Amino acid sequence: MRYRPLSFIVVIVALIFITFDSNQTLRSDVLDLSDKIKIWFFNAQENIKLSYQKYLRQANTIQEYAEKLKDYSKLELELQTLQTRFNELSNFISQKSPYQNPNFIATRAYSYVGIGDYNRIWLDLDITGYPTNKIFGIVQNGNALGIAIITEKRLMGLLNGDENSSYAVYVGEQKIPAIIRYDNADPKKILADFIPSWLKINAGDEVITSGLDGIFTPGIPVGKVISVAQNYGYITAEVAPYAQKNHLDYVWLIDTKIIQTHFDSSNKDLK
Hints:
Elements: H1 4-22, H2 24-94, E1 103-114, E2 117-123, E3 135-140, E4 143-151, E5 154-159, E6 167-171, E7 176-182, E8 190-196, E9 206-209, E10 221-231, E11 234-241, E12 250-255
Antiparallel strand pairs: 1-2, 1-12, 2-5, 3-4, 3-12, 4-5, 6-7, 6-9, 7-8, 8-11, 9-10, 10-11
């Protein structure tokens, strides 16, 4: 009795196979259905595979776009910073500078003021229109040679080493302020004077014009420090000037167009 269900199932399966084998139409339909199932399965498998690949590509694309977005955000911040700096620089440049349009005037030294005095020369320049207290800077071969003043309705050059030739300079890389004046101990040298004693000055330091006095434009070479001495609470540096006072011919005058401190042309030494 217990084997009857199993025998029944075997008989049914046998009948199905016999029927399937003997009935060509049924067999064809079953095979066709089987093929469709297989095709559907393969298509479904392929679609799943393509969908997965598409998902991976989208994920990679999203990650790539996320990285690009980060880069774009960084570039935007950098651009904003550059724009801010550009605006600041534009505002700075637009500010009025006292040295925007200095005049550089070529002139000629035509004689010494006095016999035996090689520190003073007459310069050929029409001084009409200039105030009587006007002071020019004199430049020879790119180096500061002295100053020029109006006296006796003419233009007098006071070269480095003259007791009335004085102008503002910077000393060394730190741009330490000083005043150039004559050296009565050695007429071939000049002094960078009134340097605060707590500042460090060394032999070999370069001396350039500062432009703070309105006589020269900034940065014109003056000379080189050759010695340093303490002098009643401040430092005095001896300077070997670059400009030479021999072979004077054509020189440049600098007109900074800045109102300057009045130079006392009534000094008896200038007459």
